[in-house]
Fold this protein.
Amino acid sequence: MTAVKAAGRYLSVAVVLSVAVLPTFWVLINSVKTLPELVSPVPTFWPHTFTLQHYTDLFTQIPFVTYFRNSMVVALVVTAITLVLSSLAAYSLYRCRYPGRQWLFEAFMSSYIFPRVLLLIPLYVAFTRLRIIDTLTALVIVYVTTIAPFSIWMLHAFFTEVPLELEDAAMVDGAGRFQVLAKIFLPLTATGLTALGLYAFLMSWTEYFFALTFIISDPHKTLPLGMAQFLQEYSIDWGLLMSSSVVIAIPPIILFAVAGRWFIKGLTAGAIR
Amino acid sequence: MIPSREAHAPGRAPGRDFRERLGRASALIQKDPYFGYLLVLPLVVWTLLTVVYPLLDAMRLSLLNVGYVGAAGKFVGLANYAKILTSSTFWHTAELTVLWTVLNVALQVGGGLIAALVLNQDYWGKEFARTWIILPWLLPSIVLATMAKWMLDPTLGVVNYLLLRAGVLHAPVSFLGRPALAFVSASVVNAWHWFPLFALMILAALQTIPGEVSEAAEVDGANYWQRLVYVELPSIGQVLYVITFISSLWAANIFDVIWLLTRGGPADATNTFPVLIYYRAFQEFRISEASTISLALFVMLLLYGVWYMRRFMREGIAEGGS
């Protein structure tokens, strides 16, 4: 009976995990097949042929390096700005006392209800007037905006668990509040800031909607935008799409392998408190 | 307070007074109301410029008849509102968006709940499974769309191949080419992206249930389903309410997967609000009309949000500080 139960347990876990990861492996497997095998109507579940052609094509056939660099620049700059703005704001909201604090917190959180698409048109108009349409700057601005509310939510778990006495003690010793913040508080919440960095990077790296609207010329396209044009073509180059899908997924996976558990902590502590 | 000139003691170094004032200002700024305001100020300014200003500008645009960006518009009063509220497309889209949201929430929260219950068991490799369940959520929407188009393709797709082999189908099906099927397919693809996030949130809630409670119920002879219905689900009820809310707001705003897979088609079957608004503004160049629709969407989400929070969520989500 217990053996049956154990088998059922492992089977259920295997099914759930397969649903989550198998499609990704299917892409990985197909990315190393030669083109005839790749587009054969009878799929092969293990490659009979092996080639890295689709990966080398990324560098010779399309401006993949440009797209990749644009995405990386945007994601890194957004991450840096988000870390500064959100950690300062979260410190203020969770650790300082002043009238209007609760109201401000609710105002930030209410932007959940705010549809992204409502920002699209007015920002497009404004960016056109400011002559930053079709630049990476436009993307950086709007990404920071969309990422900020959730960042503050995520930092809650990390910022509220630092004992208040630690800060008080440092101030008794004569440290100013800026010093306490920079030298004591933020280092203590490094895991939370890492989790936030992961989130900000991931959101910028994967974003498509605003990029589609704000970016027009090829040299300014980010990776999702660059890839999308191959998906829309009449005759789709599946080899290129498979290999670029694998490559675009690598940075998020590496980041999650490093900082994933802190991200999960920030995510779940927000939901269950 | 600015000290008067008379207060200057003779013979004082000229820089001293300034430095003193600077010192006092810096001491003051590190006291609480000011320090708190100072730190939150950058994000407040950022939000005013990139959220509040666009909201006001969308209102302005909705009262004009601007076509493409940069065109001068004439004031038309509430004509755009009258136009959209009497158009059948608007109401059809509203219906589709509700349907899309309901189906996606059901799949995401339902799938997340099942996955969480499964992962919450005791087995070897727990840490691994509970971490890498996240994989679909890490993938960009463009990868989801690539995968879905590839796997659902009528001639090359593995899904058709397997269903034909298993005898479920007798002829290949164009999953993205038929209205109802395309709607369901896009929903499944989108739900696949989001369910891990909700699974992890529910899993965390399940883990806060003390082991003894479940064990006591088991000793009392409660079977698995009884424990689920009477012990586990009630203890995570509040989390399910929060997750359902977040999931519905996110689902109503989905653009990427729909646009990349079907562009709102076939026959407008997947033409939810974000797709309609994008299309009106940037394919048909009816900026004012699109702004009006996006404001209508905002009002509908706002009403829904207020109703939902009053109805289902307990007070004090914002327990900041302490």
Q: What stands out?
A: Chain B touches chain A through 98 residues (CB under 8 Å). Residues 56 and 94 of chain B are 23 Å apart (CA to CA).
